[in-house]
Design brief:
heterodimer; A: 291 residues; mainly alpha; 72% helix; disordered N terminus; B: 315 residues; 78% helix; globular
Chain lengths: 291, 315
């Protein structure tokens, strides 16, 4: 049974049980709702956006919020609400890709290090220590210098920066779980190491991985917006929170709504993800929450 | 015992620096395609590319290149900037103090905000003051420092016209103008950092305040301020000191972007411009110096940690 499995039964009741453990207070419910709303808005952006985010209207440049343009327009007369919806899409796409790749790569190396120990463990852990010696954004900038600016480079760079954290977390979970009697029993009856890792160890290490995933998602969104802000992430005219703020900086005096609304977009998304990480942590360790 | 501990930490720092040098070297040598071509652009003539390849030593075996590069780096020879036609080492010597100064100001600002707020939060746990403090910390964590910078520019520069919003003035040039120019960047960078410290110190203080020796001190009739600041804070600050060390990297990452917002000529702006222009010698030099600072600060924190809590040495 995994750490988040409360009923032991499959299907809806299991999902409902997990959800009720995560949503144990009004703040957690709000976080789940905001994060879900962002995902819906990002996925449905092409349907929900009132205008094409890249279509310019030079007769309506820097227009303040109105009935036609709820959040106003930017310096090229592009509808800001539409650009923010697509910006959320970019941020969520980068964040989700970074989480998926870094948890997959980091998780695989973490399991390998924890299961094999010895030279493999030393090699994996020392490499991850060295990688973690770099401030994450500096390491990401190094990768972008090598690969060139763009969404793919940003995803690879941020994956390289965040994967070592997953290596450490998964390895330490594996070291604890591999001592458990049921793992020992599986080993004694001849279950292969790969099956032990995937069937018995990984499901029980999912709790810390989930918490770290939510946090990595939040920090990847912040890092992506920073990279896009300095012109090294999502390239214009594709909308991203970071490049919308960069464009808004030049008009902060005459059109403050551009930078303000994009910033609020990032803060709400990151806030909901951080609260979600807290909620996951509480769901895994309710004692710590109560204390 | 203490000597062995210091030696162990020194060896560890040396290993991390050595490993980092390999990462910095490899990152820019495993580029798909030719680094010389990438630096000069697709329009460059084959002759120019070949000359740069020889100049950068790219025609030699990879291990040879690394050994030569490392020995040059250790002698302070970091090559020449392609973009600025200047020695990378002198560029860093010129700009590093500005980034360090900004980071130091931000750190002081963060500690000044975080410690009192976390003490109020911890001593009034689950009250309105605690919730307000924690909410402030969460918002601080969720806010990109560059966006906060722009909002501060909007308020204090554009609307109130109280503070300058761009550029840098050296303290030796005009101290008052230096302070005025550094206020907004310091707040933008320090606010996010203070949020991290606030949460750590609050949790740690709550834990310490529940311990037996604190109960004994209170039962003995000691004043609450004495219990709090003399007995509880010393132990509560141990995790906070660690977080300060670990998050120096976070501070430096933030400084890279904040410098761009406020047009401060530190290594952050230098690195961002170098990445944009694919000026590899500058990228490598800046990455290596940053990781060296980060490692040294962590080494100092480790040693400090052992002074604050002697149990660490035996761990």
């Amino acid at each position: 049974m995994s750490v988040l499995d409360v009923t032991g039964a499959g299907g809806t009741s299991r999902f409902g049980g997990v959800l009720s453990r995560i949503c144990h207070g009004p703040i957690e419910v709000a976080a789940v709702l905001i994060a879900a709303a962002y995902v819906i808005l990002a996925v449905g952006a092409p349907l929900l956006a009132p205008y094409d985010p890249n279509v310019q209207n030079l007769r309506a440049t820097l227009a303040s919020p109105s009935v036609q343009h709820w959040l106003g327009t930017d310096e090229y007369g592009r509808d800001l609400l539409s650009r923010l919806l697509f910006g959320a899409r970019s941020s969520i796409m980068v964040g989700a890709s970074v989480v998926a790749l870094s948890s997959l790569i980091g998780g695989a190396f973490g399991i390998l290090a924890g299961m094999r120990r010895g030279i493999v463990d030393t090699l994996v852990m020392r490499t991850s220590d060295v990688t973690m010696a770099f401030p994450q954004l500096v390491l990401a900038l190094g990768f972008i210098a090598a690969l060139g600016a763009g969404i793919t480079s940003a995803i690879i760079a941020l994956t390289a920066a965040y994967a070592p954290i997953f290596v450490r977390i998964v390895r330490s979970s594996v070291l604890v779980i591999r001592q458990e009697a049921y793992v020992e029993a599986a080993r004694l009856i001849g279950v292969s190491p790969v099956r032990i890792a995937l069937r018995h160890i990984l499901p029980n290490a999912m709790g810390p991985i989930l918490v770290q995933s939510a946090m990595t998602f939040a920090f990847a969104v912040l890092a992506e917006s920073s990279l896009s802000f300095v012109g090294l992430g999502v390239p214009p005219p594709t909308a991203s929170f970071g490049n919308i703020i960069a464009a808004g900086r030049d008009h902060v005096g005459d059109a403050p709504w551009i930078a303000t609304s994009a910033g609020v977009g990032i803060v709400l998304l990151v806030l909901s993800l951080l609260l979600l990480a807290d909620a996951f942590r509480d769901a895994i360790d309710p004692y710590q929450h109560r204390s | 015992m203490r000597f062995r501990f210091i030696l162990r930490r020194l060896c560890w720092a040396a290993f991390v620096l050595f490993g980092s040098s390999i990462v910095v070297f490899l990152v820019l040598h495993v580029i798909p395609g030719d680094p010389a071509r990438a630096m000069l652009g697709p329009e460059a003539s084959p002759d120019a590319v070949a000359t740069l390849r020889v100049q950068l030593g790219l025609d030699r075996p990879l291990i040879y290149q690394y050994v030569v590069w490392l020995s040059q780096m250790s002698q302070g020879d970091m090559g020449r900037s392609i973009l600025l036609s200047q020695n990378v080492a002198s560029l860093l010597v010129e700009r590093l103090p500005i980034t360090l100064l900004l980071s130091a100001y931000a750190l002081c600002f963060a500690v000044l905000i975080a410690i009192p707020v976390s003490v109020i939060s911890a001593t009034r746990k689950n009250t309105a003051a605690d919730y307000a403090g924690r909410f402030l910390a969460l918002i601080g964590l969720a806010m990109p420092s560059f966006w906060l910078g722009i909002m501060l520019i909007l308020l204090f520069g554009v609307r109130l016209r109280l503070l300058p919003v761009f550029g840098y003035v050296a303290p030796s040039q005009d101290l008052i103008e230096h302070v005025r120019h550094m206020i907004l960047p310091t707040v933008s960078l320090g606010m996010v950092y203070s949020a991290l410290l606030m949460e750590t110190n609050r949790n740690s203080l709550i834990e310490v305040l529940q311990q037996d020796y604190i109960r004994t001190a209170r039962a003995g009739g000691l004043r609450e301020t004495l219990v709090l600041y003399k007995y509880a804070m010393r132990n509560a600050l141990i995790p906070t000191v660690t977080v300060i060390g670990i998050q120096v990297g976070y501070l430096m990452s933030g400084a890279l972007i904040v410098e761009t917002v406020f047009a401060i000529p530190g290594i952050g702006r230098l690195l961002v411009n170098a990445v944009l222009a694919r000026d590899y010698p500058v990228v490598q030099g800046t990455m290596l110096v940053t990781v060296a600072i980060f490692t040294i600060v962590n080494l100092i924190v480790d040693l400090l940690y052992a002074v604050i809590d002697p149990r660490v040495e035996s761990a």
